[in-house]
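task queued by scheduler; priority normal; single chain, no ligands, no partner chains; default sampling; output format set to C-alpha cells
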Amino acid sequence: MEIFNHNVTETKSHVYINSYEFKNFKTSIKLNFNESINLTEKEKLYFVFLISDSISLTKEEKIEILFKNLAHFSSFQFFELVRIIEEEKKSLSLLSTENSSYIKEAEAMKLEILNEWRQIEKL
C-alpha cells in the first residue's frame, strides 16, 4: 500500500503501515495538521504513531512537534520527519537482530516511551 503519495519526496511503501504495532495503534490526541498537505486520516494516524514510537525524540520534542509546530509544517518538513523516523525504526530493528543484548535494552526503552506517550495523551 502506498501512503504519502504526494510527490513531495521520493515515495515508497512505508513498511510500518502494515505492522502489527501500527494496526493496533490508537490515540485520543486530536491534532491540527497543515491542511495544505492534504493527508488522509490513516496518514495522520501513521505520523502520530511514528512520533509516539520514536526513541530519538524526547518527550518535550514530541509535545513541541505535535502541539506547537505541526500546523505550520511545510510538506517538505512533514515528509522529511516521516523519512527520518522510519530510518530510525529500520536501524533499530537491524540492531536488535545483530545484538541480542540490545533486545533487553530496547524493551526497557519501549516501556519508557509508552509511559511518556501516555503522559502526552493526557495533555
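post-processing summary
- DSSP finds five helices and no strands in the chain.
- Residues 6-13 have pLDDT under 50 and may be disordered.
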